[in-house]
């Protein structure tokens, strides 16, 4: 039997906004989900590590807190290993498990907070790699019908911080397990500036996956605020992708704009746009913008959901006025 516990969401999201729901219910096994469905509790939302959610108000319904664990090797050949992971496993622990087993493909994604089950939802990415490169399949339960379905990579439509699970009708699925194909002889990717420079600084010429993980952890610890001490939910907005013509006209007005080619589009760092509008380090009561990174909104203690909402909307408005670019939240707004 599942049991209800606690109703306050503050301690289970990394932005630490004070808000309540009708009940937070831990889910250890798929069976627990079927029990909830039979009881007819509604509305229901799923939460993993709470590191990509901004709670703006009290939630009317129930929160299912994913605690489904287990990492199991299910198949292998001489090149790769198929691993099936419980969606409630901590993503970074899975990266460390892979490194301990000398398996590569996810080393650039070290120290990303949250659970394995949330990783495919926004196709987590960092330092030139995203999880779609090793993703094999996932198992999920449709919370509207109770039907369980396995989704293979070609069905999930991974994009830049995107997948079908961010859109209807797939928002209503509870992801319970995810399978990854990890490489026995990985080709490491250190093209992203920060990693290359960090390895150079340490005089590492032929880096192993272990060296990459260590470098990524060091860079992240030095650049990003630890939510334990300064609550935040990582990059608040997606980096905008512009078409070539829009980018050319923008560059005429702002010749120093940083940019990166991204397929048919040009990616502009949202942090730069926000910084140019003067927001870096801004603080109004406890709602603020991190002083060392303009893309990270922070809660200095007791910011409310309403205050954080006003802040992110003002940022969107000023970027729109100055650059005519719409910033889309990467964070899920509840
Ligand atoms: P949650 O915040 O709990 O949930 C996020 C969304 O997914 C919600 O809509 C929730 O309903 C849904 N969800 C969660 N689990 C499930 C499930 N099992 N089934 C169905 N729906 C589910 N992201 C990156 O991509 N790259 C980074 O480098 C990165 N760095 C970060 C650094 C910091 C300091 C922080 C705070 C965040 C960072 N993030 C990054 C964002 C975040 O870590 C990821 O989006 C992560 O995957 C969220 O996992 P979670 O378990 O905390 O998800
Ligand atoms: P950064 O190195 O300061 O770079 C700023 C932005 O420029 C990044 O968003 C990145 O886009 C882009 N960029 C930099 N070098 C690039 C290259 N060689 N090719 C393509 N794009 C490049 O970034 P950061 O803020 O410190 O973050 C480092 C990495 O961790 C990034 O990949 C970032 O996405 C990830 N991260 C994500 C979150 C989150 O919550 N989503 C939070 C912290 C860090 P990309 O973002 O597309 O890589």
What's the number of helices?
8
Number of strands: 19
Distance between the termini: 28 Å
Strand order of the largest sheet: 5-6-11-9-10
Enumerate the spans where pLDDT stays under 50 for 5 or more consecutive residues.
none
What is the molecular shape? globular
Q: Beta-strand percentage?
A: 15-25%
Supply the helix-strand structural class: alpha+beta
* Helix content percent band: 25-40%
Radius of gyration: 20 Å
Small molecules (ligands, ions, cofactors) in the structure: flavin-adenine dinucleotide, NADP nicotinamide-adenine-dinucleotide phosphate
The major β-sheet equals:
5 strands, antiparallel
* Average pLDDT score: 96
How are helices and strands ordered from N to C?
Answer: EHEEEEEHEEEEHEHHEEHEEHEEEHE
